[in-house]
Recover the amino acids of this structure.
């Protein structure tokens, strides 16, 4: 029988994904007493109360969301956890504070994890000790529909603060045995063609992955194959268990359960060792806890139901780390193990079945894993790799039966040869060769049609009905199958029926940091004004924010793409947009041969009018701020003014043709060089948006400029504070929705007060 206490506990912790806020401190004693008091009579309710209490307490302890470090630099001693990522000359590195040099404010733990932004960082290794002078910052990130949620990822990793490195001194190299072993493995793999994939399979290090490889893994839905997770641990456990049990039964047969227990112990030790080599990151810890518990429960006859074993595993994982709900690792690992349990729940009973039956079970399992994990990854990453099903159908058994065993065999041999200081590259040649078909298929998939099918939000929500319908169908009763059919119908309706209204139009001012990108939707058409910034060859807000947003809205074609001028924060993502979205007309005075010039005139666009107000003539030389393409959009008695980065000179020059506007995107992000009193009086905006990044180095928007708009009676919004801002114009009404407050008003999307987030002047 399912444990109602654990069911209530897990349900409430999982539901915290949708909470607007966690329990405040003053309610926690009440929920604890209520949970303990109801434990015997109402275990389901008791579990729910204690689950809500546990995640609230855990977040307060790990993240400390109410704490402010302030503006003053703090000197600390820290241990390097791992490099995280890089952008241009900046590197992101995770550390653990081990010794503060100054007295820290009350409540700050010495072991707190911090994400560093380190300019021109030296090569660092896990386990090194450094003395660092840090300036702390708030945990936040750009937040938009469909886009990557960076702050949610940080919280999932228990990173409670961000900081910029002002000064650094290496105190001691890493002496940890794991670091020495990983370095030796990296050196030994250097000559192999697929060393990046082997490093990921051995130590969990994916820093060597090229952007093209990440893209191929996403499209083929095979990223889980090279990420150490429950699948890898399960494969290692199964191989070790099978080999040890076979040898024991061959040479030391016994009718008792001794050999089974010994084989299980060896398998458990093997996966613990594998997890240690992978760095025992939080995702690995969770998968390890889940797998070890499932192995233990499999030995106990009391827990015969796979559903009960799965519930026990989930309960202990959430007890170990309730913040696991914020990351994709829990859902992938849990769903993979759930699919395995549900598909082969009678495997032990069929111990004496023939080869044909075992082959049938194996193929059934692989098909279920391929379809199930493709569905989960579609929900997590906003799209489906349509070739992911057959790729997983081929590659999951290939990795399980060939790649992972050969990699582990190479590792065992390397551990023997390392003390003798002998080369180890030959030991990994078989595994390297086994990766060749996988790499060739990755290359081929990217050239096939329909390689990636982006999911709009409505389609993703509809997909949630699929597993519910499947589980109801499995109950095999008349009423459950009737309910399954009812659940599937919303899926079909959401995919086939559009929910857009032709009577309204929408403007979305996206959060692209210190830059600008505005999407306007009307009827079945879309327009994009500016494309955000790009940095180096591997980072673009167009790729990180704009393209995922368009896909989430079901937009695959732009009627118009207007680039106001050439500055990077407005035009940096142009090429990314053109590669990923069909563009009918590009309008700009920038140096792009396929662009139409921006000149005064009016175009009819569905029920809206597009009035280009400025510049009056071709700008001389490079298109600067005052050469910005100024666009006025009107329809249904409402209007939007997009002035780019124009400054006072242009504001005054176009005063005669400047109309009023319901919504204004403030020129030049709220700089003092723009937004003159005459300009504001002429436009008379009811609402004003400042497209300015949180804590940007320019101090935009300037406080006196914000006050100038407020004094005119305009409501003021800042994308760095609100995230994406969406305005729906419907008749005489304008509905405003910010990402943090309305679109996704969840506790983990708020700005956590672990640093000063004010704009520097």
């Amino acid at each position: 029988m399912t444990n109602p206490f654990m069911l209530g506990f897990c349900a409430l912790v999982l539901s915290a994904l949708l909470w607007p806020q966690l329990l405040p401190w003053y309610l926690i004693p009440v929920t604890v007493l209520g949970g303990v008091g109801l434990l015997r009579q109402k275990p389901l309710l008791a579990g729910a109360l204690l689950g809500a209490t546990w995640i609230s307490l855990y977040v307060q302890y790990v993240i400390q969301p109410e704490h402010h470090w302030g503006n003053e630099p703090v000197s600390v001693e820290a241990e390097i956890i791992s490099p995280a990522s890089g952008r241009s000359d900046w590197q992101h590195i995770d550390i653990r504070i081990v010794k503060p040099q100054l007295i820290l404010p009350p409540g700050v733990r010495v072991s707190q994890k911090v994400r560093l932004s380190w300019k021109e960082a030296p090569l660092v290794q896990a386990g090194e000790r450094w003395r660092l002078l840090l300036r702390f910052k708030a945990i936040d990130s750009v937040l938009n529909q469909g886009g990557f949620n960076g702050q949610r990822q940080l919280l999932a990793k228990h990173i409670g603060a961000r900081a910029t490195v002002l000064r650094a001194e290496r105190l001691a190299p890493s002496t940890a045995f794991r670091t020495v072993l990983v370095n030796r493995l990296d050196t030994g793999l250097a000559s192999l063609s697929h060393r990046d994939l082997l490093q990921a399979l051995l130590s969990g290090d994916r820093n060597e992955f090229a952007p093209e490889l990440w893209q191929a893994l996403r499209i083929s839905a095979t990223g889980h194959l090279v990420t150490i997770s429950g699948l890898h641990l399960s494969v290692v456990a199964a191989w070790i268990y099978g080999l040890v049990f076979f040898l024991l039964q061959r040479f030391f047969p016994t009718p008792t359960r001794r050999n089974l227990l010994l084989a299980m112990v060896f398998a458990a030790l093997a996966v613990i060792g594998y997890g240690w080599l992978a760095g025992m990151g939080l995702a690995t810890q969770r998968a390890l806890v889940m797998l070890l518990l499932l192995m233990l429960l499999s030995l106990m006859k009391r827990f015969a139901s796979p559903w009960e074993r799965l519930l026990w595993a989930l309960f202990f994982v959430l007890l170990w780390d309730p913040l696991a709900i914020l990351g994709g690792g829990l859902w992938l690992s849990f769903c993979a193990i759930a699919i395995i349990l549900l598909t082969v729940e009678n495997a032990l009973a069929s111990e004496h079945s023939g080869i044909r039956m075992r082959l049938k079970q194996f193929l059934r399992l692989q098909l279920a894993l391929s379809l199930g994990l493709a569905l989960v990854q579609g929900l997590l990453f906003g799209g489906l790799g349509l070739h992911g099903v057959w790729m997983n159908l081929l590659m999951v058994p290939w990795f399980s039966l060939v790649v992972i065993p050969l990699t582990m065999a190479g590792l065992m041999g390397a551990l023997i040869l390392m003390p003798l200081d002998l080369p180890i590259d030959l030991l990994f040649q078989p595994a390297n060769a086994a990766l060749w078909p996988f790499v060739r298929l990755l290359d081929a998939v990217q050239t096939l049609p329909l390689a990636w099918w982006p999911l709009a939000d409505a389609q993703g929500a509809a997909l949630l009905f699929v597993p519910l319908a499947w589980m109801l169908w499995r109950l095999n009763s008349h009423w459950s199958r009737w309910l399954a059919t009812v659940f599937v119908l919303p899926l079909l309706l959401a995919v086939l029926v559009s929910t857009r209204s032709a009577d309204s139009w929408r403007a979305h001012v996206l959060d692209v940091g210190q830059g600008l990108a505005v999407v306007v939707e009307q009827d079945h058409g879309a327009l994009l004004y500016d494309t955000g910034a790009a940095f180096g060859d591997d980072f673009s807000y167009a790729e990180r924010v704009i393209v995922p947003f368009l896909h989430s809205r079901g937009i695959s074609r732009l009627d118009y793409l207007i680039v106001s001028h050439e500055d990077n924060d407005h035009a940096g993502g142009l090429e990314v947009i053109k590669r990923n979205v069909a563009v009918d007309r590009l309008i700009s005075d920038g140096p792009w041969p396929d662009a139409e010039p921006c000149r005064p005139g009016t175009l009819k666009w569905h029920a809206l009018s597009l009035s280009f107000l400025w510049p009056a003539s071709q700008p001389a030389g490079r298109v600067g701020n005052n050469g910005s393409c100024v666009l006025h959009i009107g329809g249904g008695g409402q209007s939007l003014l997009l002035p780019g980065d124009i400054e006072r000179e242009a504001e005054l020059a176009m005063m005669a043709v400047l109309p009023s506007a319901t919504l204004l995107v403030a020129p030049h992000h709220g700089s003092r060089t723009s937004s003159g009193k005459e300009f504001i009086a002429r436009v008379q905006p009811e609402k004003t948006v400042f497209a300015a990044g949180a804590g940007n180095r320019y101090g935009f928007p300037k406080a006196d400029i914000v006050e100038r708009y407020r004094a005119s009676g305009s409501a003021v919004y800042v994308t760095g504070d609100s995230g994406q801002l969406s305005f729906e114009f419907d008749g005489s009404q304008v509905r405003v929705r910010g990402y943090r407050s309305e679109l996704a008003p969840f506790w983990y999307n708020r700005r956590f007060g672990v640093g000063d987030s004010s704009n520097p002047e």
Remarks:
- The chain is about 45% helix and 20% strand.
- The CA atoms of residues 670 and 705 lie 6 Å apart.
- The mean pLDDT is 85.
- The first helix runs from residue 4 to 15.
